[in-house]
Amino acid sequence: MPTDKGMYRPRWDLYVITDELLSGGRTHEEQARAALAGGAGVIQLRDKTASSARLYEAAVTMRRLCRDAGALLIINDRVDIALAADADGVHLGPDDLPVAVARRLLPGRLIGASAGTVAEAIAAERDGAGYLGTGAIYEARGSKADAGAPVGPERVRAIRAAVRLPIVGIGGIKVENAAPVIAAGADGVAVITGVVAAPDIAVAARALLAVVAGARR
Predict the structure, then answer these.
(1) Integer Cα distance of 175 and 178 in angstroms
(2) Which of 84, 91, 131, 208 has a CA-to-CA distance to 13 between 20 and 30 Å?
(3) Distance between CA 86 and CA 64 in Å, rounded?
(4) What would the DSSP string read from start to end of 43-71?
């Protein structure tokens, strides 16, 4: 398992979150394989309804796919699954295990934290988070019912000025609106529907990566 000292260098440009409810019948594993083929640098396994056995099964396969691609596998919420499957880290929201506690349980692994405000970002950095997911940037349709009101790219700019951690913008991000998120200071974009609900996941991933690259020029 790569650690913070030996981990693959994170490629934050495109962070794809899998979702079997939005993917047109494609499994988490199939979504991950296609997103990695399209150039995603980070894959997050997110499933609020699957059994622990199913999550573990998916995570083990996705871990192998990500390692083969030189990408990172992050598990949403579940520290136990991250440990059991030897994933690269976990992503935590405000209702999950505190970042400081997860840091003690997952030494050497990435811990991502959702941060919608500057205060939340500062607290996450203080408590040992390795990166931030900031949003919802735009209105998120069909993916996260708890995403909250859109905060816009300007929230990324404010958080960027307050912390040193990598930031990925999340929430309603698509090809047509990703560039302002990068211009505001995000290191990458995290997407669910914009990639996994597309007819061709790999093509959608490449298109978003091209926008991110163009916004940095």
Answers:
(1) 6
(2) 84
(3) 10
(4) EEE--SSS-HHHHHHHHHHHHHHHHHHT-
CA 11 to chain CA centroid, nearest Å: 11
Is the model's pLDDT at 182 over the cut of 50? yes
CATH T-level topology, domain 14-215: TIM Barrel (3.20.20)
Q: Where are the domains of the chain?
A: 14-215
- How far CA 75 is from CA of 20, 63, 194, 198, in Å, comes to 15, 10, 19, 22
The C-alpha atoms of residue 95 and residue 123 are separated, in whole angstroms, by: 15
Catalytic residues: 46, 114, 144
pLDDT (tens digit, 9 = 90+) per residue, 31-57? Answer: 999 999 999 999 999 999 999 999 999
* 174 has a pLDDT exceeding 80: yes
Q: E strands of 125-187, at which residues?
A: 131-134, 167-170
